[in-house]
Structure prediction request, 150 residues.
Amino acid sequence: MRLSGIIVAALAGRALGHGDHGSGSQRPVVDENASWMQKHMAEEHHAADFDAASFFALHDFDGDGSWDGEEILRTYGLMDESNKHVTEDRKAEIVGVITKLLDTNRDGVVSRDEFVHVIEVEGKTLPDMGTGPGHHGDDEYEYEIHHWEK
Ligand SMILES: [Ca+2]
Ligand SMILES: [Ca+2]
Prediction:
């Protein structure tokens, strides 16, 4: 019994990724080799397990069923202070890369079905565009939407 207890503790320690070092105890720690999507979900949304549809819904900030360029930028943290040095040209380039990857019917926006198909059927993943983990506060966005509508 004692031995199995030790094994369980060791496995739990691995799963939590050394959660007792430092402050991120509620943050799932992902492997260094995890995709950008997995890192983003772990670091920004504290979610270790998700599917393409929930990833899509979480980043369809206005809930209209498709991703436009601004939502792609926000997903990548490009509406955040930490990326304010990124030039407009680079932002347009990032939107272009992501749109090219996901917008399979070329209508300029990424639908939920397109996203789910590319991720789950084609087995692709969102590339790391070098913009960090993708900071985007939903509360902040609500405020901005409200602000812009005035
Ligand atoms: Ca949308
Ligand atoms: Ca489309």
The beta strands are 66-67, 110-111. The chain is about 50% helix and 5% strand. Helices lie at 2-16, 36-45, 52-59, 69-75, 88-102, 112-121, 138-149. The longest helix spans residues 2-16.
